[in-house]
Write a structure and sequence with these properties.
By secondary structure, the protein is an alpha+beta fold. The chain has 8 helices and 4 strands, in the order H-H-H-H-H-H-E-H-E-E-E-H. A 4-stranded mixed β-sheet has the order 2-1-3-4. Strand 3 and strand 4 form a beta hairpin. Helix 1 crosses helix 6 and helix 2 runs antiparallel to helix 6.
């Protein structure tokens, strides 16, 4: 996994620079997401390293519908295909989206709660996180009844465990040590 990320990083950076310069970050993000889903399909994965399949055929498989072969994204895919790197599309798409969020001063935060959060709680949490991290916040909420109560907030770099289960685990650890 670490090697795939290392190989994908320069491609993601190059895609980001092209998309940013042309003001088409959202379009590139969608196209990369589509190509990543195609590359992750086991049927396509078997074709990527098949010498009987031409790079142009692989590019055509990974192009979103309606996009021409002369588009910058198509040329990007051609470069990946010629270098045998189309299998890196999921990593490239993920790294691109990180760069996109960073450029937009947006942070994607995963919030897991014991109960479903209503709109007011979600907005309150978003505002609180925005003040703390001084960035726009994109929330990805999930419910896990095993938390018993509270929330776990995962920013990707930091985890804030305010769940009842987490508190009980910390208490048990403190009592046993």
């Amino acid at each position: 996994m670490a090697q795939a990320l290392t190989l994908a990083r320069p491609y993601a950076r190059a895609a980001f620079e092209v998309a940013h310069a042309s003001g088409s970050l959202a379009d590139w993000s969608r196209a990369l997401g589509f190509a990543a889903a195609v590359a992750a399909d086991v049927r396509v994965a078997g074709l990527i390293n098949d010498p009987r399949v031409l790079p142009a055929q692989l590019v055509a498989l990974h192009l979103p519908e309606g996009m021409g072969n002369d588009a910058p994204f198509a040329r990007f895919l051609e470069e990946l295909a010629e270098n045998g790197r189309l299998h890196l599309m999921p990593e490239i798409a993920a790294l691109f989206d990180e760069l996109k969020l960073e450029s937009e001063s947006t942070m994607k935060v995963r919030v897991t709660s014991a109960l479903d959060l209503d709109a007011a709680q979600t907005e309150s949490l978003r505002a609180s996180l925005k003040r703390r991290f001084k960035r726009e916040i994109e929330l990805d909420t999930h419910v896990d009844a095993a938390l018993l109560g509270g929330v776990v907030i995962d920013t990707g770099e930091q985890v804030i465990d305010g769940s009842a289960r987490g508190r009980l685990q910390r208490l048990a650890s403190a009592l046993t040590h």
